[in-house]
């Protein structure tokens, strides 16, 4: 324990000499983010975000008069290790809640442990949907809050006729692209005009793939890239685009996993004009966002940037605080019930509400990369309710999630039955 933590603990102890000892037991928050490996470029910032939020809440008196203690582990971008570390947090450290994970494969690794031990996790990153666990609150975007609106922007605003769906080879890109292929075909795009490619985590040789994308437009049709490439593989991809002389005017790229943090490590000179779709950008114009950026830079350093998953952790953490206060307890079942309908401000000037399907209402923003590594927001919607089950796959269109009234995350509206409650789909 460092000096600051020791002093903080001592302060709480001194203030509690006449109070029951139990009231001063810390609320333990597990932080399950990769601090090493291919995803460290993205996840380390989320660990730092949680430490800042916890420090700030402790200065305000903690929750229910109890201090908050962060328990940080490193699953090291090793997907099976997420399950092991989640079990360690819940069984050994006995944390009250977990904030963590980035990739869907890491989340799905932790899911069986969360459901077995009735743990609670807040998951802060956009994902493929097709899931609703009783033990997870999804504070990132579902496909209808990112992938579908971004595709519409390509179709309606940029006149894209051919699509290259490039993704890292795991569940999020594959499921998202499956949804997008179905959606594009419904919109009249021919199967031959959809190019799909997957590469492993950390992939570095992009020359052939970029050449294939360029060749897609040989007939003169407008080509656009929808990128679900994750982690440090993005560095090589954008460098190869620049080396091939591909500009945003030639072949625009809209990325779902590239934000300010990822761009901070790149020379963005040749990336100006390419796009990203998120629910928050640092450039969002709101008083609350200005305050958050100032706090972040004071905590982490003037050169540090903010991004969308950070905002998701801010929203999730603030909702957790309100839910614990409303429940008067950190009991998982009580907190879960208190979460439904909770509203907190988002950082773009609107309001986030937790829905009974464990997803949020979120605005959809399209941002254009600027030379300074920030995004010019060129499109923003009102808040969109997150949909756990897509309308664009027949097997999912009949499903809905309602953990409050139906106690089911996979309810078939045609048969009016709960298909299953555990997330082993």
Instruction: Output the number of helix runs.
Output: 13
Sequence of strands across the biggest β-sheet:
7-6-8-9-10-14-15
**Mean of residue pLDDT values:** 92
Secondary structure: helix percent: 25-40%
Low-pLDDT residue intervals, each spanning 5 or more residues: 1-23
Distance between the termini: 41 Å
Strand content: 15-25%
User: What characterizes the major β-sheet?
Assistant: 7 strands, mixed
Instruction: Report the count of strand segments.
Output: 19
- Helix vs. strand class: alpha/beta
Rg from Cα: 22 Å
Structural shape: globular
Topology at a glance:
Layout: H1 3-14, E1 27-32, H2 40-59, E2 68-73, H3 79-92, E3 97-100, H4 104-117, E4 121-123, E5 136-138, H5 147-156, E6 162-168, H6 171-186, E7 194-199, H7 207-216, E8 223-228, H8 233-243, E9 253-255, H9 260-263, E10 275-278, H10 287-300, H11 308-327, H12 332-339, E11 343-345, E12 351-353, E13 361-362, E14 365-369, E15 375-380, E16 384-385, H13 394-397, E17 399-402, E18 408-412, E19 417-418
Helix pairs in contact: 2-11, 3-4, 11-12
Polypeptide structure, described:
- The protein is 37% helix and 19% strand.
- It has 425 residues and is an alpha/beta fold.
- Strand 17 and strand 18 form a beta hairpin.
- Helix 2 packs parallel to helix 11 and helix 3 runs parallel beside helix 4.
- It is globular, with a radius of gyration of 22 Å.
- The chain starts with a helix and ends in a 7-residue tail after the last strand.
- The N terminus is likely disordered.
């Amino acid at each position: 324990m460092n000096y600051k933590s020791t002093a903080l603990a001592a302060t709480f102890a001194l203030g509690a000499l006449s109070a029951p000892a139990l009231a001063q037991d810390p609320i333990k928050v597990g932080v399950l983010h990769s601090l090493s490996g291919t995803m460290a470029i993205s996840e380390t910032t989320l660990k730092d975000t949680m430490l800042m939020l916890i420090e700030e809440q402790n200065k305000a008196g903690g929750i229910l008069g109890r201090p908050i203690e962060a328990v940080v582990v490193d699953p090291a971008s090793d997907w099976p290790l997420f399950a092991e570390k989640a079990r360690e947090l819940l069984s050994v450290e006995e944390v009250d809640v977990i904030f963590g994970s980035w990739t869907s494969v890491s989340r799905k690794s932790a899911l069986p442990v969360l459901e077995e031990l009735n743990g609670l996790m807040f998951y802060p990153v956009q994902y493929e949907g097709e899931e609703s666990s009783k033990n997870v609150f999804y504070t990132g975007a579902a496909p209808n809050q990112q992938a579908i609106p971004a595709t519409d922007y390509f179709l309606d605003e940029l006149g894209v006729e051919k699509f290259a769906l490039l993704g890292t080879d795991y569940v999020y890109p594959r499921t998202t692209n499956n949804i997008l292929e179905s959606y594009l075909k419904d919109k009249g795009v021919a199967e031959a005009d959809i190019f799909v490619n997957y590469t492993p985590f950390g992939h570095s040789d992009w020359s052939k793939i970029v050449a294939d994308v360029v060749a897609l437009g040989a007939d003169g049709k407008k080509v656009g890239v929808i990128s679900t490439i994750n982690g440090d593989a993005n560095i090589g991809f954008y460098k190869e685009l620049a080396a091939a002389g591909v500009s945003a005017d030639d072949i625009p790229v809209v990325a779902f996993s590239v934000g300010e943090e990822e761009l901070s490590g790149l020379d963005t000179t040749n990336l100006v004009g390419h796009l990203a779709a998120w629910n928050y950008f640092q450039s969002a114009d709101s008083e609350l966002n200005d305050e958050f950026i100032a706090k972040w830079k004071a905590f982490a350093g003037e050169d540090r940037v903010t991004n969308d998953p950070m905002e998701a952790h801010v929203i999730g953490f603030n909702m957790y605080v309100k839910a614990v206060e409303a429940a008067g307890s950190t009991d998982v079942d009580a907190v879960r019930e208190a979460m439904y309908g909770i509203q907190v401000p988002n950082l773009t000037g609107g309001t986030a509400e937790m829905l009974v399907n464990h997803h949020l209402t979120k605005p959809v923003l399209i941002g254009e990369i600027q030379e300074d590594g920030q995004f010019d927001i060129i499109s923003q919607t009102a808040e969109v309710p997150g949909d756990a089950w897509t309308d664009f796959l027949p097997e999912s269109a009949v499903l809905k999630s309602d953990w409050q009234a139906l106690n089911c995350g996979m309810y078939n509206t045609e048969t009016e039955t709960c298909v299953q409650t555990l997330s082993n789909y």
